[in-house]
What does this fold into?
Amino acid sequence: MASLTLSGVEKRLGGQPILRGIDLAAQDGELVVLVGPSGCGKSTLLRTIAGLELPDAGTVKIGARDVTHLAPRDRDVAMVFQSYALYPHLSVRENLAFGLKLRGESKAVIEERVREVAAMLGLGALLDRYPREMSGGQRQRVAMGRAIARRPQLFLFDEPLSNLDAALRSEVRVEIKKLHADLGATMVYVTHDQVEAMTLADRLVVLRAGDVEQAGPPLEVYRRPASRFVASFMGSPSMNFVEAAVEDGALVAEGLRLPVPAGRDVARRALVGIRPHDVALADGEGALAMDVEVVEAMGFEAYAHGSVGGRPFVARLEGERAQAVEVGQRLALDVAPGAVHLFDPETERALE
Amino acid sequence: MSAERRRPGALLAELGVHALLLGAVAFALYPVLWVVALALSPGDAPEASILPIPTAPSLRHFEAVVTTTSSEGVWLFGRQLANSVITAVATSVTAIVIATPAAYALARFDFVGARSGTKALLASQMFPGVAAAIPLYLLLNALSLLDTRSGLVLVYATSAVPFAIFQLKSAFEGIPRDLEEAAMVDGATRFGAFVRVVLPAARPALAITALFAFMTAWNEFILAATFLSSEDMYTLPIVLQRYMGEYDAQWGAFAAGSILVSVPVMALFYALQRNLVGGLTSGGVKG
It folds into this structure.
C-alpha cells in the first residue's frame, strides 16, 4: 500500500479546462472519495491517477514514485470501472487471474489468490461462469475481485455502484467499507452520490468545475461547508438559502429574523443557510415564517415544502404536531442553535 | 401465450403463417432442387417435368466434372479446385491481416487523414470492380502477374480490404473502451490489450469478415475470366462457365459443378454459425 500525492494537476480536453490545478493527498490506507456533480472532472481526475489520461501539467506520485508519465500498467494500481469492464470471453476465474498472469505470477500463486478472493467475495460457485451469465451484482463483485486479486498499491473506483439497484447498492457499499478495513488499502473512490460519499469516505474531496471546492473528513465537510456549493451539494434534502440584511446585530429578511451568530464577521448582507432538519415548529413567533405548499408525511417525520419570503424552503418536522401541518398554513419555525450557516452573497464562500 | 394458442382462431392464424412460410421456402428452394435434379440426371438436357425429381439418378456428371484431365494428362479439376481455394483463402487472409490493424486505428485513434481516408475507402467501394478491369489488366501485365494466382489475389484484395476495414471498424467501435483500459490498468500494453481483449471480443466480426472475403473471391467470375487465360490457372467459376459452350450446353456437368462449388461455402457457413450468431461481447460491461 502507498500514499497518493497529486500536485497542480491540470488537464484540458478539446480546449476546455477539465482539471484546473488539483492538489490532493491520500495517506497510506486512506479512503478518499471524490464527489461532485457530473462534469466536475472527478472521473478525469481518477483516470489521470490511473494513467489513462496524461495531465497537461502537474505531478502524480504514488508513494515516493513519480508516476506522472508512466503507463497504466507500470503504476501498480487497480481500477473498478462503472461498467465493470469484465473480459467477456473469459470466465470469472480467468478474469480474476488476468492481471496476475500478465505480471508473470506463478500458477500456484494465481490459484491461491483466486481462491482467496473468491472466498472473500463469495464468488466460489461462479468461477466457471462467463460475465454474460451473471447478474449485475455478481458482475460488480467480480470486478472488485479482479482488483483485489492484484494486490495493488492503490485502488481506484469509478462510480462502481451506479448500475446497481438501490437495495443492492447499500449492501455493496457496506461491503466496500468492510473490504477497505480488512485490506487496509489506499483507495480513491469517485461518486456523485452523496450518501456513498458521506458513508465511505475517510476524507471527502468535493470537486466543482475542475477545482477542489473543499476537502476534509465527511462530517466536517457536512457541518462546516466552505461554500454555498458544498452546502447545497452535501445533505438531502438540500440546504435552504435566504439572503438577509444585517440590522442591529440581527439577520433580517422577509419572513426571517435571526440573531447574527457570535463570532461571525458579517458586514451588511449575508446568505443564510439552514438545513431542513435544523428547524422545528416554534411555540411562539419563531425565527422563520414559512408558507406551506406541499406536505410529505413519512410517518414519524414530515417534509414541508414551501417558501420563506418568496424563496423556496424545505423543513423537516418531527412529532405529533408535524402530522397536523396543512397546505396553505403559515408555520412559525425555530432554528437549532449553531445551525445557521452564513455565506458571502457575492463570493458564496462561508463567512467565518 | 399458451392459453391464447388454444383458441381456434389463433390456431388457424398460425396454420396460415406456416403455410405462407412453407410457400416461401418452396419458392426459394425450387431452383436449387432443379439444379440438384439436373446434376443427378443421366442426360445432358433439362428434363421437361415440373417436379425436380430425376427419373434415373446417376452420379455420372459429378464423375465427369471431378475427373476432368487435360490433354497432357494433368488432373485439371484438382488444379482448378486448388486455384480457387488458394485464391479465396489468400484473399481472405490478406483482407483480415491488413484490415484488422487499419480498422482498429480508424476506430480508436484520431489522426491526420483518418476521416478523409475513411471517405476514400468508401469511395473505392462505390465503383464496380469491373470498371477497373482494363487498367488492372494493364497493371498486372506490367507486373507480369497476368494469369497468376497472386495477381488475382492482389486484385481481389483491392476491394476486399476496404470492405473488411468498414466491417471491422464498426465492430471495434462496438467494443467498449473500458475493456482495453481495464486490460491496460491490469498490466497489458496497448498492443497486449488489443491482442488479449479486443481481438477475442471481435471474433464474430472477424469470422464474418473473413468468410465474406472468402466468398467474394470464391464466387468472382468476371475479373478471373479477364486475367486468367490458361486452363490450369482457372478458378472454378470459369470452369463452370466453360460447360456452357457456344454450340452445346452441358447442363448436367454445369449443375454438378455448381453443387461442388457451393458445398465448401455452405460448409464454412455451418462451421462458423456459432460466431455468426454473435453476441460474444454481451455481459462484459453494464448490468
